Amino acid sequence: MTDRLRFGVFHAPYHLPMGQNPNLALHRDLEFVQHLDRLGFDEAWIGEHHSCGCEIIPDPIVFISNVAPRTSTIKLGTGVLSLPYHNPLWVADRFILLDHLTRGRAMLGLGPGALTTDAYMIGIDPLEQRNALEEDVDVLMRLFAGETVTHKNDRYELVEATSQVRPYSDFEVAVAAVASPTGPRIAGKYGAGILSIGATMSAMAPDGVDTLALHWDVMEQKAAEYGQVADRSKWRLVGPMYIAETREKAREDVRHGIDAWFEYFQDVQSAVHFEVAGKTTDERIDFVINSGLGVIGTPDDAIEQISKLQAQSNGGFGAYLVMTHEWANWANTLHSYELMAERVFPAFQGSVDSLFASAKWAAEERGTLGGAQMKSVQNAMAKHAEETAAKSSA
Known about the structure:
By secondary structure, the protein is of the alpha/beta class. It has 13 helices and 12 strands.
């Protein structure tokens, strides 16, 4: 088990219901990451999408460059940069620049591209995206290592290409893993991290496949093959949550936007590996809870969900990332993350253990120390009375 569980978000973002002012939505995204920074969240991963109408950040590097100066400690990752859409040389140069500008607070998350409509618009066959990712990560890692690369395929050509600036830090690279073994294969080969976006989907997986077991087994297999270390602290699990003071309030709050979220996955985005069920609001809320996909409940429910994932992972993981959404309105959404920081973090980080120990010790010693304190007060009163009497008789 890793020592201190980190917390963060995986921010696509899903601006639903559809039709929100995109400028306002983007500025709220900036405010949201600032809010997380103030609350002490460890990480925020920002997505790249180009179609479907609600995931409206097309360049996570630009977004991170904007929000980094507005925050202080939170680490900022591309979650994820769709590498097959880009020339690896320009990705290397742009991310090295980001690494310098953030002085090591940036992380590079890579994936094949989640939306087939994005790939379609630039003429990439979705059937080739995962093979392309494996090929392109190899090129990218060589560029990060300072090599001069000559490489050609149907999407780009590099001729004696090299990144002229070296990285500022030994930044972390992580690879997205949903349903296929591609992400863990790549992560294991290079000793990178895994973003298990499908971490809570085992209940929905075909043939009862344990997604977490698949991800880690492949990761360990490939790491051993290439002489790398499969580091559980670099393993991040992703799943949606919304918490409130009571289960009843949580259910009521998510009526604001959960239907639009379900309709997006059921009718708009062609992510067939992410099937959600239900037609009425209550059916959809029950599906999230009963399938194990996510949490709509209290901080205790969130603690229980994460504890189950720790047990299922058979050894622990490094971070839990909340898949963000707008199931509730803006104010209630911010409050949900406040409750996460206030009530859920301590259960996995041990930050209040010493406080309870101190209170327990004080309670045990209360009688003895309280009696001594009272005796001290009585002695002081008696001394004062004696001195006053002595002065009066003089």
